[in-house]
Amino acid sequence: MKIFRNSVWLCLNFELLDCCRYRVLDIFPTNDCIILFKVDTDSVAVRPIAISLESFKSGLKNKEITSSEYVLPNFMLQSEDNASTDHIAKRDSNYEIIKPLISDSEFLFNYATKKRFSQLAQYSQQIRVDRKSITRLLTKYWLYGQSIMSLLPAYSNSGGFGKDKTVSNKDLGAPVNPRTLAVERYKKFILTDDIKAKFKLSLKKYYLKETGISLVKTYEQFLRDHFEDELRVSNLEGRPPYIPTIKQFRYWTNKLFSKDEITLKRTSENDYLRNKRGVLGSVIDKSFLPGTTFEIDATVADVHIVSEFGTQYVLGRPTIYMIADRASRMIVGMHVSLFHASWRAARQAIANCFIEKTQYCREFGVNISSPDWPCFHVPRNLMCDNGEMIGLKPKDVVTPMTSLLFGPPYRPETKGVIERSFKIINDDSLHELLGNTRLGTVIRGRRDPRKDACHTLKEVTTIIIKSVLEHNRSILKELGYSSSLLVENDLTPTPANYWKIHLAKQKQDLKLANEDEVIAEILPPAEVSMTRNGIEFNGLYYSCSEVLEKSLASIARTSGRWRLEARIDENTTNYIYVKLEPKGKFLRCELLSRSRMFANKTMIDADFMQDWVEIKKELNPVSIESIDDMKQRKQSKKEAKKRLKASPKIPFSQKRKNIRQKRKDELLSTTNVITSDNRCEAKVITQQSTVAEVVALPIGRARKNRSSNEND
C-alpha cells in the first residue's frame, strides 16, 4: 500500500505507536524516517513524532496499521465566497506567522526528533509572537490536513456575524480628551446609516475614479456638500462644528470598500495589470519528481460537434482543458465543454485532477480500474498562464490547496508539456473525425466542416479520454533520460510507468486531497430548489436517501419550496452535490426517472434544451389559429346577444319551468335515439319525416308473382 503525505492511518496493536489515528506530515526516504501527527487528541499543542519508515511499512504488511480517514470540521468545508473578509484576513495572518516554519522541512524533522529544540523559541522572539500561539497554530495546521483553510477562525456561531452595531446615543470608540483644561475639544459625532450612505456617495463621486482627488480633499468636499449649514452656524457661534472627523471618514472608507476595490477604481486597467497586480510564484525549470509542478491550459478542439437531441443543431467547437505533470508527462486531469476558456471550465478540470477517475470515465462508457489512471493528487505547484487563472477567484479557491505559478505572456514554451499534449490529442484522434478543422480557416470554395459535423460532445469526450489513456501508455524517449528508476527496474519509459515507480519508491511531491473539500471548494457553485417533485436544478429533478428519510419533498409541498446550496459536475446530468443543511456536507443526489430523457448526458445538453424551448416560445408566442378562434368566439357572442334581444320577453319563472321535459323533447327532435317510453311517438315522427322526403315515381306493370303474393 502506497504512503502519501497528508494521508491518515489507524494504528492497532502497533508497538511503536498508540492505538489511534495518525496523519503523515512528511516522508524522508534518505533518512529512513516518516513524520506522523496524532489526530485523535483534544490537546491544543501536540508535537509530531518520527519513526522508521521500514517499521511503518512492516506495520502495514502485518495489518497493524490500516488506512483511515479524518472528517474535516464544517468551518473548512465552505466556499471562499461565503467566508468573511475578517476571517480570511485572520487566516492569512496566521499563515504568515507559521509559513517560514512549515516551508522548512529541516524544522519539521528536528522538531519531531529532538526533545529539546530552541529554534521555535528563537523564532518566537524574532517575530514577537508568543511561542504557545505559534504551537497552537502549527497543531491546528497539521491536524486539519496542512491546508491554509485550517487556520480560519472556528467561531462561526459566535457574535453578531455580518451585523453592524446598533446606533445609540452613546458614542463608540475612545473618548476625546483635551491635553489641558484650558482647551475644550469637539463633541464626538455619532454616525448613522444615513451618514454612511453619504460617505459612500461622496467616495464614488470624488475619490473612486481614475482622475479622483485625494482622500483628504474628498473629505473636505463631503463637508461642503452635506454639512454646509452646520459649518456656517458653528462659525458664527465660535464653537467646533458637530461633523464626522477625518478619522471616521478614513475608517469607513476602508470599511465600505476593500483595498483591492479602491485600487481598481482609482487606476486604469492597463496600469493595474502592469504595475499593481499580484505577481505570484516563479518558474521551476528543473522538476524531476511527480507532483512538483502540474501544468494547466486550454485549447479549442479541431472538430465541430452537434447536439444529442438533433444532428441539425451545430454547437461549434468545444474547449478542451487538460492538466499534465511536468516531470512524468502524465495527463492527470481533463475537461471538455462548450464554455470558452474561463474559470468556470478550468475549475472542472482541477476538480477532475484532484479526485479519482473511475467514476468520471464510467459516465462516458469507458470502464477502467484505478491503476489504469492512478492520478488523484494535489501538486505542490500549478503552472498556468495569465488568462482565466490570474483572477482573484482562482487565487482564493486554489491556493489553499496548492500554489499557482504564472508564466510570462506570449511564452507558450513555459508550459511545453501541456501544449505538446494538445497537439498529440488533435493529431491522433480529432483530425480523423467528420467535421474537423485540420486545414485551418475555411477558404472560399472549400467545403465548410460544419456541414459534415455529426459527433456529439459526449462522443468527442469519450474519444479524448481514450486518447489520454493511450498517451499515458505511450513510449517517450525523453523519460528514459530523466530518471534512473526506469532503467533500474527495467520498465518501459512511459508516463504511467514513470509515475508508478516514483510513487512506489516514495520519490514524489504529491498530497492527497479530501474529496469533500474538493467538492466544496473547486466544483462550480449553484443554487437549487427543494420542491415537492425533488431537488430541481435547470429543469432536472434529483433526490437521495436523506430526502426520503426526512420527507423534504412532502415539506416542500405543504410549506413551499426553498433554496439550497449545490455543487455541479458539468460532465454529467446523472448526479449533483447538494448541502441539505447549512452546517452539513455536500451529499450526492441522483437523477430521478421523471428526468430520464437527460440521463447519461452533459449539463450542456440540459442548457441547450432550455434554449430550444425558449426559442420555440419566441417564434410562436400566439398561434394564428387562436387569433381566428378568438374572432369567431367574439362574433358568436354578438349573434347570441342579438338573438337574446329578439326573443319574446317572458317571465323568468315561466322560462325555467319543465326543464326536464324540454330537454327530452330536444333530444327526440335532434337525435334518432328511441326509448321504450316514446317508441310510438318516435315512429310517427319518423314516418312524417319520411313521407316529407318521398319522391313520386312512375308506376310499372304488375308482375305475376306480386299479384299472387297480394292474393295470399
UniProtKB/TrEMBL annotation:
<feature type="compositionally biased region" description="Basic residues">
    <location>
        <begin position="633"/>
        <end position="646"/>
    </location>
</feature>
<protein>
    <submittedName>
        <fullName>Transposase</fullName>
    </submittedName>
</protein>
<dbReference type="InterPro" id="IPR036397">
    <property type="entry name" value="RNaseH_sf"/>
</dbReference>
<feature type="domain" description="Integrase catalytic">
    <location>
        <begin position="286"/>
        <end position="501"/>
    </location>
</feature>
<feature type="region of interest" description="Disordered">
    <location>
        <begin position="629"/>
        <end position="665"/>
    </location>
</feature>
<dbReference type="InterPro" id="IPR001584">
    <property type="entry name" value="Integrase_cat-core"/>
</dbReference>
<dbReference type="InterPro" id="IPR012337">
    <property type="entry name" value="RNaseH-like_sf"/>
</dbReference>
